[in-house]
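Follow-up to my post from last week.
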Amino acid sequence: MEALKNYFNKLFPLTEAAWQDFEQCLVKETVVKKDLILEEGQKCDFIAFVGEGICRFYYVKEGEEKITAFFFSGDFVTNYRSFLTGQPSEHYIECMQQSVIYKVFKKDLLQLYDQHQCIERLGRLIAENLYLTVARRLDSFLYATPEERYQELLQRNSKLLQEVPQYMLASYLGVKPETLSRIRARK
Amino acid sequence: MEALKNYFNKLFPLTEAAWQDFEQCLVKETVVKKDLILEEGQKCDFIAFVGEGICRFYYVKEGEEKITAFFFSGDFVTNYRSFLTGQPSEHYIECMQQSVIYKVFKKDLLQLYDQHQCIERLGRLIAENLYLTVARRLDSFLYATPEERYQELLQRNSKLLQEVPQYMLASYLGVKPETLSRIRARK
DNA sequence: CTTTTTCGTTGACTTCGATCAAGAAAACAA
DNA sequence: TTGTTTTCTTGATCGAAGTCAACGAAAAAG
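User reply:
Got it. Predicted complex:
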């Protein structure tokens, strides 16, 4: 899995031995459109690297899907909270397109942490990066209006805008589809 | 610093040698009420353990203080984003009471990570915990109304309720003081 | 291609938090 | 104590997002 190796190398290069042990633990999965790779109530016992595809991470409140995050190729997809705490997931993860993902299971990862200090470090760096991601998202809810959040999206011209239907974008921004439509009309 | 050692032991016990090296790097600071331990524009080059006291972590938007977090004795206080990325802080950290904190500086911590695998692991566990903290807070903004957020606070009967003036609570909950007053009146 | 379903827009109206303003209560200082 | 400042409450009004409903456009299914 070259893409993953490159990703790691940018964060912190693994030794050859560590990478080989790590690669042993990767489980490739091909997932078809609309498949759930995690359902509510399940424990999330893996972290997966997205090779290709897009996944959405959502929560159902009062029959309505609230999208918390999207994951694209090159991201790690997991319910990290459930993964860390062992509690059942309150969220679903759905692949929106045919996708290829590479899972590492928790039990394997914990062993790898013990066996290779450089993987332990990678684990720290990944946790730190995931922290930065949620922290930024929290900020945009604490300090910005829905309109400002939409403008931010426009500016960073994220894949979201091309790849994701508008009603899902609305959910991601924390508003109703009608409201996003009106925000766009305001220009 | 016994409290800190206990805290670590619950997460992951350090070896005696690691703890001794770690303790060497702790810098004790006594801070008086209203002192800023971090200002906007500064790089946050430390993580501090709060021995006693309360700190507030806030951002100023259009002349208004928006409180993102509170830190109590037993917590780590830092601008973790600035600490990790090296970017200047957009937030202030103020001690609301006379406080005692124990700083570890980034340059020292990075060395400790290299020297002791158990400290590296502790670093991962702390990053994971900080992740869980923001993620929970993000959830409460994504999925709950201000009223529900206030009810949550009431239930977990946090120190916040006793120790913090209501207008700061309001800011923390993401509403104006008038609104919190009305939420309380609704019961 | 036509039919059916999903998605996006628009209008009328409601709801809830923000804003502005005034006054009461509590905390603090002289 | 008294006086001053800070914090909390209450009322009136405003505004942005939600809700409900209708309709046209686009996409999917046949």
